[in-house]
Design brief:
alpha+beta, 25% helix, four-stranded mixed β-sheet, three-stranded mixed β-sheet
Length: 382
Amino acid sequence: MAKNYYEILGVEKTATQDEIKAQYRKLVKQYHPDLHPNDEAVAAKFKEINEANEVLSDPDKRKKYDFELENPFAGSGGNYSGGFSGGFSGDFSGFSDIFDIFSQFTGGGSSRSTTKAKGTNVVLTVSLSFLDAAKGCKKEISYKRNEPCQTCKGTGAKDGTKYTICDTCKGSGQVQQVMGNSIFRSVKTVVCPKCGGKGKIITEKCTDCTGKGYKQTTTTLSIDIPAGADNGSYITKRGYGNASVNGGEPGDLIVEFKVLPHKLFERKGFDLFVLAPISYKTACLGGKIQVPTLDKPYILTIPDGTQSGKEFVVRNKGINSKYGIGDLHVKVFIEVPTKLTRPQKAKIIEFENDLDIKQLNKMGEYKVNVQSLYGVNPYEDK
């Protein structure tokens, strides 16, 4: 059965292209790997979403897919020539042993070409300041990777010509390995042990790369850091990894981010959190204070009677990225003066005496007040 791309995107089969596009954008914001670093389940879901959208957003691919969905045994195999891998991918390599068994009885041989392995990836950790990660920036990075030797054109042979075709695999890089007995044998295709899958034997090594076919070089690259980058999030630069050892495409460069802490801000996802001091007067009577944001100060109104620890949420003043916009959370605390003069202390005492607390001059009333505050009576053992 092919995957049900309509269910993956969460749309009806009758959905219009605009509806599919809108739903795809919604899911991308929800499941983008940058928002869920190191979460393999989310990464797999994101891959499925892109796979489904690649088919359903293309009218021709969607038409073929709908036909296969209604006629699962019609032979389409899910191969829509779109580069995606869904349902039946059209790759019958899983039946290779069966085909090889038949070839033993019919006298046929393997027609496979040389498998050119992709080069290995390079993983690089880059430190970012809090603001660079939050707002996005350009950054120049340097790293070491294996690049094809220019002298031998990646062959490993002197002048790129001092080699012969492997006589074991005839240049294919693969040989057939027969397993089983004379009654029932299977044939498995494996890497040629003589040439190591390269299909050629070097007769004289390149002096520049000593026959490896690649050289380690330092690459300098300018990369765009997207706004909202977080610890563990990463970007991938296709083809900027290590060179392949047998002529395949190069690996990728994976740049992982490490975000440094900030003196004022903390973050959770795209939301920012900051502490803001207020005076005793502002807490009692209310007023306006300035709070920092990523761009410019924001004027926050403090209502009268605000308690220390009260949190205010300022919408859309957090991190602004293409994947979403966060809020700014402001928690206020009352600054208590540490040094007071005698006249100032006297005024505070006079002020306190004017409050309702002066009515609590009897121990019984004070007990009741404490109990109402803490939910227990501290003067009882129960």
